[in-house]
Amino acid sequence: MINTAALFSTAFLPGQTGFDTETITGLAEWRQGIPVLFKLLAGAGTQAAAWPIYGDGEDCPCVLAAPMAQAQASWQALSQLMDKPRDAADIVARGAISSLLAGAQPWLVLDCVQLIPHDIDTPEYAAALLALREEAASLHAALLRGDRAALAPLLAAGAASPATGYWSATADAQLADVEELGTDELPFLQGLEVVGWEEDALCYAVSAAGEPDVTGLVTPYGRWIVPLSQRCVDLGVYYADDGWITFARADAPEAHGVLDLNGTLVLPPAPGALYVISPHLLQQIDADGASRLLRLPDGALLIDRVDNMCEREDGLIDIERQTDQTDDDAKRNVHGVVDKTGKVVVPLAYSSVQDFGTKKKIAIVSQRIAGRFLFGLVNHQGELLAPCQYEAIDCATTSSPPKLRKNLIFAIDAQGLACMLTLDGKQAFTPLYRPAHHLRGVAVQSDFLYVVKDGMAWSMDFTGRLLEQFDTVENFKAAITAQLSETMGLSKKKTAKRRSFTPAQILAKADREQLRSMAALVLQGDADLAARCVDITLEELEEDDPQEEYEGDTPEAACFFLLWSTASHTQGRGTTLDWKAVDEVPRIAQHIGLPALQDFRWKEREDGDAMAEGLAAIAAHLAPHQLRLVNLHGGEDTYYLGVVRAQDAAAFQAVAQQAALRPVLL
User: Which of these, 68, 253, 265, 324, has the minimum number of CB atoms within 10 Å of its CB?
Assistant: First the structure.
């Protein structure tokens, strides 16, 4: 959808007898902004009114309405002050405005809902609407006193400019969704080649017969955004979501410029290619490969020599500059970060800049020093907190923010010694020991580190104090490796083949009483709900594909997982989460509908926390309610979550193990 301001006329306002949405007539529209003329015509006599074409606006003031007689008088007064028309198109445009206003109904409505970035019926929306009313009244007062300075955008305006908008009786985009129609229904398309429907621009791309390279854009209601007379080629409408269209002209196809979504020229064509990066940023690349970052809409140079840009997971934009030095440490490309307006967040000085955390605005950076990539920390102001002198800094992936443990960050310094960094980049203690294992997530736990002293593996707290000696480093590594291999299914011990059963085999052995007892375990003892889940499960099995198979050691055991699935999906008593769905943890009450979870808040969440920490937080919240969180498939990439009563935990685990489900109770 393209946010649009529109003017309509109506005989009655909502709430008045005789109001009918079918009789509303379109007058004018403008994409992405409210033209000055629209505000002036609303004038001093404007009032806030409901507008039922928006569901939330049926009973709530959300548009501005003014007497049409006032708007007509304002237009006449403005016409006397305006400069003489520039050309025939300007004369036609002014005549169209006069005709539409003269033939309109008694009320003028300014629909600005889509351009106020707040929900209807909120204090923020009401404040924005009031500010618009005050601006309209101020413009009307300026007109009455003949204040040319205040009216300057209008007095020099040409046809269909941002100051006056697009005027037409077909300008009814706000009354219905703008969508593709059959081309044979649209007379203005006859004789043209329809290249295709451009959803992002809500236009047909068309060309004239015999000139397939020259294209234009026209809406389904006949508004030409890019007329064929402009002889445009290479229209880039894929940037419409950011508010822009790139183009070249047939007589200079190597020079590209920018239009807005109204077709207004923003940047004239210049040699080179253009790539819109965000609503505020544009990359320009010359034929020789030289590139730069420009600001939209004025085209001001922000950063010269920018070779690559891409949006990051944290919403910022990576920028890269290629270097041509011959020295090994200097010839590497350098990276920095800007926000979507082009403001530099991290200067172009690093080999890499990882994502910033959502809470603690800290990112890991790296530099190549003496042939090694070493890591440091920067804040959201681009200030270097920890210099790039660390062999590693703990994070989930090579692009993630640093992982926080008790507001500390695990790192390994350039000498290979383990330490913890504070949020301001300082070392929490003097590094003395190497980490006991090189694998990520093994050397550091939630409350302690594994380190090496005199060939032995020790645990050490986050202040540098040794806690407990475990074993030799070799035995420690061997034990960890064996545990990981078993978890990942890489051990030499063969896994027994699981049995499976068809729906008919399960139904033949189904014992409703036994199944109800099993279901009650995953439904906190609710016998009635358990009976309903059993009925649903058996009914679905009867209607199931007879060739389908379900795993389990027995038909009854195979049914256990089906019962959990029914309780989850039909009764909201469980959920399935991906191992990376950390953002779903705070919303767990939306997935599992239990009163005990309604007030759950993950207050202690830190940057870099994974699902394990989130599930632990849920379990800790449930514990005072005598409830246990359970994952039916421990060690899998998907979490099959449910909640059982603490008193049922042992029975639940026994039944689940019969189905070889490997449950994990937290």
Answer: 324
